[in-house]
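Each lists chain and fold; for instance:
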Amino acid sequence: MEPETAEQQEKQPLENRLDDNAMAMSKRLAQQLEGFTTSVARDFSQTIDVISAFASGRAVPGSAVKQAGPALKMLLATLIVVLLAYAILRAIAKTGFARLNIWIKKDSARPANVPQDPAAEDRAGPGVLRLRNITLSRKLLGVIAALAIDIAATMLAALAGYIFALTLSEEIGSAVFALQFLNAFVIIEVVKAVSRGVFATRYDNLRLLPLSPEAANYWNHWLTRLIGLVGYALMVVVPVVSVMFLPSVAQIVGLLIMLGVYVYAVRVVWKNRKPVRAGLLRHADRTTVPLFGTLTRVFGRLWHLLAIAYFTVLLVVSQTDQQEALEFMAEATIQSALAIVIGLLLAAALTRSLSAHITLPARWTKAFPSLEMRINSYTPATLKTLRLLILIVVTLVVLDAWKAFDLTGWLSSANGRAAVTLVFRVLIVLAFSALTWTVLASVIENRLGSSGPKRATEREKTLLMLFRNAAAIVIVTMTILILLSQIGIDIGPLIAGAGIAGLAIGFGAQKLVQDVITGVFIQLENGMNQNDIVEVAGLFGTVEKITIRSVVVRTLDGGYHLIPFSVIDKVSNHTRDYGYHYGEYNIAHRESVDEAIKQLRLAFDDLKQDPDLAPEVLADIDIPGVTALNERGFTVRVLIKTTPGNQWAIQRGFNRLVKARFDAAGIELPYPQTVVHFGRDKTGYAAPIDVRGVDAVREVYGSAPPPGQTMRPQATPQNLGTKSEQGPEATSQLPPDDGSSTDAGAKPA
C-alpha cells in the first residue's frame, strides 16, 4: 500500500488524525523505552566484562588506559594550577565583594529625605529621587558588579590553566583531558557564580532573595554541589572514562552518578517542601503587586513538584544523550527563565499602567460625563485578556524550550498562522465593538445630559434611551455572530434558525408583539415621555420608566405599576404644552355675583404676588361667569392657564387665597338648605307663627340673625358680665343653640 500524501491526510477527519498521532506517539515512546532498556542491559554486560578483565589482569579490547597516561598527568597538573589560581583570585575578589557590600549598606542606612505624601514630594523639588528606587538601583548595580568580579576570577583562572596546558603539552603529552576540564570549569563555575550572586552567603546586602544567612548558605551549598557533581561528571568524568575504557562503561558510570544526584536532589526538595512553601506564602502576603502575590502563592504550592520534574528530565536527558545533556538543559533552563521573567515584567508593567485611573481632559469630561468611567470600566477586562495572552505565549515558549512543542514549526505552519490570525481578528472585532458602543453611548449621554436652551426634551430622552438599549442588543448580537464566523462556525443555519424561531415566537406571543408595536407608535406620536403626569389604564401618576413593551407609572400613594402597552387604549397626558386650573366655586344665593367675582380676581392678584407660583401662570384669570344654579347656591367657573404639570400647585395656592378673601368679605359658601312651608286652608290663609324667640334675640343682640344662621354670643368680658347681671331669666329668653330659627314662616333645617 502506498503511503498517504499530505493532501490525503488533510482530508481525513480531525478525530482520525488525532487518533493516528496519539498511536504514533505511543508507538514511538514504546520503541524508545525498549531501545533504552536494551542499551542499558548491554552496557551493564560490557561493564561487568571490563571489571572482570581488570580483576584477572587480562587486557580489555578497545581500552586505552596506557595511552591515556600522559593526558591524565596533564589533567592533574592543569587541575592543580587552576585550583591554585582560582583560590588566589577568589581571595582577591573577596575584597571587592566586601567593598560593594559596604557601599550598598551605606546607601541603605541613609535617612530618607523624600516625604511619602505627594504634596511633600512636590515641595522636595524635581531633583530629589525616591530612596526606594535609589536603593534598588544601587543594589542591582552592586550585585551585577559582584557577579562580574566572580566571573572574571573564573576566566582568569581558566586562562592560567589554558596557558599552562598549552605550554607544557609538548613536554608532558596530550592536553585533551586538560582542555576538556577547562571548558567544563568555565561553564560550571560561571553557573556557580550566578548561584553565589543570588544567595550571597557572606554578604547580606548583595543577596537578591529575602533569605536569612543560614537559609542562603544552605541552598547555595546544595545548588553548587549539585551543579559541580552533574557538570564535572558529564563533562569530565564520562568523556575520560569513555576514552580510557569503553563507551558502555562511561554510560554506566554516568547513569550511576546521575541516579545518585537524582536521589539526593529529590530527597532535599521533598524535605524542604513545607518550609519553602511557608516562606513563599509569607512573601506573597507582603507583596504590594496582586499579580506577583498570586503567582508566588501558586509557585509556593507547586515548587517541589516542578523541582522534581526538572531533575527527572535531567536524569532522562543525561541518559538519552550524555554528551549533549548539559547543553540542552542549559539552553532549556535559560530560555524558560528568560520567558518567565520577561512575561512577569510585561504583566507587571501592564498592571501598573492599566491599573492607574485614566483621566480625560476637562472639556471631554464636560461634554461626555460617562466617557471616563466607561473607558476605565474596560481596564479589568483588557488587563485580564493581555495577561492571558502573555501566559499563553510564555507557556508555549517554555514548552518549546523543553522540546515538548515546536513553536517555530507551528508558527511557520498553516495551522499556526491561522491560529495567530484568528486571535488578532477576534481582538480587532472586540476592540471595534467596544469602540462603537463607547462612541454611541457617549454621544447619547451627551445629548441626554445637555443643558440650556438646547437641552433634550422628554420625548428625545425617551427615544434616545430606547435607541441605546436597541443599539446595545444589536452590537452584542452582531459581535457574537462575527466571532462565531471567525472561529469557523457557519452562522447561516443560526441566522435561519433565528428567523424561524422569531416567526414562531411572533405567532405564539402575539401579546408581546402587540406590546412592542403599540409602544413604538405611542413613542413616535409623542404620547408620553418619562416624568410626564398621565392617566393610563385607569391609573393616574408619573411616568417613571418606558421600555420597548411597557410603561411604569408611579401613583400618588407610591404604588409602582407596570403597564403593558397592549392594555392601553387611551393616554391622558397632563403635561403637554400647558395646563389649566379648572375651578368651580359654589356661593350662597344671598351673595352678590359681582362681589364674588371681584373677590376671585383679587385672590388671583394675590397669587401673582407669590414669587414661587407667579412664574407658573401663563395668562390672566378667565372667569366665564355663573355656570350653574342649584338648591345650594350658584356656581362661578374659574380658568387659570399654567405651565405644564403645575396646575395642581396653582390650584392649591389659589384656593387658599380665595378662602382668605371670601372670609374677609363675609361671602358665605353654601351648605344644604331646606324650605319648609306650613299648611294653608282653601282660602290660602296660613296660621301666624310665634316669633317671640326672634324678638328676644333682637333684644339681646340688637339685630335678628339672618336666615340659616344662629347668632351666638362671643366670649368677651362684656357679654359674660351682661349675662351674669341679667340672671337666669335673661339667659332663658335666648333661643336654643340647636341651629333652628324662624323667618317669615320658613324654618331652615
